Amino acid sequence: MNDINSNVTIDFSKKNNEKPSKTTRTVKKTVAAKTTKTTAAPVKKTVATKTVAKTATTTAWTKPAKPMKPSTRKTGTSSGSRSSNTRRNTWSRRGGTARGRSKGGVLSGEKITSEHFFAHKYKKREALDFTPKKGEEPVKLYALGGLEEIGVNMMFFEYKNDIIVIDAGMQFAGAHMHGVQYLIPDVKYLAKKKKNIRGIFITHGHLDHIGALRHILDPLGWPTVYTTPLTLGLIKKTFDDPRKAKKLKYKLVNPDVDIVKSGPYTIEFFRVNHNIPETMGMAIHTPKGLVVNTADFKIDHTPSIDKPADLGKISRIGQEWVKLMLCESTNAPKSGHTKSEKVIGDTLDAIIKNTPGRQILSTFASNVGRLIQAIESAVKYNKIVFLAGRSMVNNVELCIELWYIKVPKGMIRKVWPEIESLPDERVMILCTGSQGEQYSALVRMATDEFRHFILRPGDNIILSTHTIPGNEKSVIDMINSLVRKGVNIIDDTDLDIHASGHGYQGDIKTMMAMLKPNYYSPIHGEPFMRNANKQIGLDMGIPEEHILLPLNGQAIELYDGWILVSDKNRLKLDTVMIDGKWVGHLSGEYVLKARQIMADDGVVNLVFKVDTQTRDLVGNIQIESRGFVYSSEVKKIHTNIVEFSRKKFNTYRKNRRLGVKDILRKIKDELGNHINKLIGRVPMIIPMFVYINREAIKEEDVSEDEAIVGMTLEEQGTED
User: Fold this and answer.
1) Is residue 534 classed as helix, strand or coil in its secondary structure?
2) Residue 586: which H helix or E strand, with range?
3) What is the Cα–Cα distance from 27 to 17, expressed in whole angstroms?
4) How far apart are CA 392 and CA 441, in angstroms?
């Protein structure tokens, strides 16, 4: 870098009053003397034209698009007829570009931009109205989840026959998804091209980024997973079957030094801060430009247990011309900067030290940074830490294995009856359940269903989380149950005991200022969050046409000169749900709608017995219902439904062009309207039929009333 401090000039002056037939170039290089009062005379050195050209093309001052070369034009051939001396003086006075300037070299006193100074291998930014070349194949970027919700984060890059995948997360099911545990991305498109998948790259160990791996790795052919040690350990613990966990192929990466070449892609990693260690963003060098995925992040200069974000590396990546920046949006609607985790750690430390009695701290088991701080503070004040909840136990055990937690043996234990024999001031319980989850440890404590531990008046419940939108009712119900037991509730209402792991507007602006993207795409969030992130991009000077808001399944196509959101190759994605302990998927919305109808309005089942010869009804139509009407109205409503259905069947069967199935479809539609007029709502109606040979069977020994009431039985309050 010594050349940067040199005083280099290019002299166009004439020697001995020669005619300006040719331009002789002389490089003057002035070296300052080491004395403090005098300066040595400048040293003149004549350099051939070719040597100057070579120097100009190898220095860091070259322009990105075209290397600077010395001019070989005769003096006076550029615009105007001023002499070389006049032109040189004009440059000196203006300190910038003068008309007729030579394109070679960097002149003394000339103003240059940082883009010129930090020139990189990427081309300079193309014009905004660029049109793709005929037949040009783009790099396509798809999101299979995370663009219309919080969770199920998964995206992939596809270029010709090479695919790389970023993350594979899950989303916990809402209360309206009856019987469903969680959702995962729909990977049927990737399954068809599993031979093209070069690897799956994981940003961090939260379930909304790794929770789907155990379900999708097998249909995708078990591609290699690239991640860090802590995240790998968390991935392995998501597998219910240890035999499948052993099939996992992986490579560990160090975000400080490692760069992975995967097909036509080159992936460089950089550290960011989150509420779990080893979170990393990715700079993905594609054949059509550089794409940066920030991962979930915040700017924390004093993280609790992790290293600070590598802002130097992020800034350097920003000098390489980021064509597209993918930025998370979770806290984009919130102004300011996210609190540092160290602030939360100091507050928790004071609470643990000064609060008398037994302490029960509830937080997310995935918030590893918070767990480590709480354990270290508890052990510092001679408390024994008891773990409650399977995920809490698994994550703490993993942190101990990786040396994130270093405490004396015996200071961390599972909850056991011995807890009742210890002095209250020595008891600290770390548990799950801060969101009021039905079977979590804290909820079971609130309902006296937790083994080995019973809450007493005076116990202290520390809720070190924010309530997730949608969980308010569950959390309030849990707190009400706890208050009835006489325990003390400590939450973030007045004390700083929770900090988000997602950056606020200030953090996002800082990241954007370092990366300086040409195109910007808000990801990871609900639509209102992504729209707020879009506004941040506009405030930072990104043109609106350069801010991309695709939906799940839409393609972002990267060309040499521009980027667009395309519907041409849009993927049709199903809702994929994991239901109970059944290892499989329920695709589509029908199952959820059916369960919702049954939960709200009940179900009615009708059985039509049809003669095989005449298509007449044989005997009574049997009716069965659940959750439909109360016992006082069962007989009346059921009789009405049966009579309506018999009348419609006898009417439609006269039309020989209608089969029995067609008849029942028509009855189902009309019966729905009829029931709605009777009771003001429509249950799920399930009509069925069986063919019966009237001559081959005896008359049923069943009264008409029994046939009508059917099997509503105990639910309706009637006896069998």
Assistant:
1) helix
2) strand 586-587
3) 19
4) 10
pLDDT digits (tens, 9 = 90+) for 160-173: 999 999 999 999 87
H or E stretch at 651: helix 634-652
Burial bucket for residue 423 (CB in 10 Å: 0-12, 13-18, 19+): exposed
User: Which of 211, 203, 256, 253 is closest to 234 using CA atoms?
Assistant: 211
Helix axes 341-354, 368-380, angle to 10 degrees: 40
Residues 6+ apart with CB under 8 A from 87: 12, 78, 98, 100, 101
* Bridge-based pairing state of the strands 586-587 and 576-579: antiparallel
Write phi, then psi, for 224 (nearest 5 degrees): -70, 135
Give the residue, 91 or 560, on which the prediction is more confident: 560
Q: What helix, strand, coil percent values describe the chain, rounded to 5?
A: 30, 20, 50
For 560-606, write each residue's pLDDT tens digit: 988 999 988 899 998 888 876 554 555 556 677 787 888 888 999 99
Taking every pair of Cα atoms in the chain, the longest distance, rounded to a whole number of angstroms, is: 133
Query: Listing from the earlier edge strand, what are the strands of the sheet with 488-490?
Result: 412-414, 384-388, 427-431, 359-362, 460-463, 488-490
Look-up of token digits 């109606």: 685
Please give the pLDDT value at position 130: 55
Asked whether the whole model's pTM tops 0.70, one would answer yes
Torsion of CA 411, 414, 418, 422, to 10 degrees: 40
Tokens of 606: 């009708």
Q: Which two structure tokens, joined as six digits, stand for 342?
A: 């160290």
The residue among 162, 521, 527 whose CA lies nearest residue 328 is: 521
Integer Cα distance of 468 and 370 in angstroms: 17
Asked if 294 and 503 count as a contact pair (C-beta separation under 8 A), the reply is no
Distance CA 528, CA 541 (A): 20
Burial of 596 (0-12, 13-18, 19+ CB in 10 A): middle
Helix (H) or strand (E) holding 139: strand 139-145
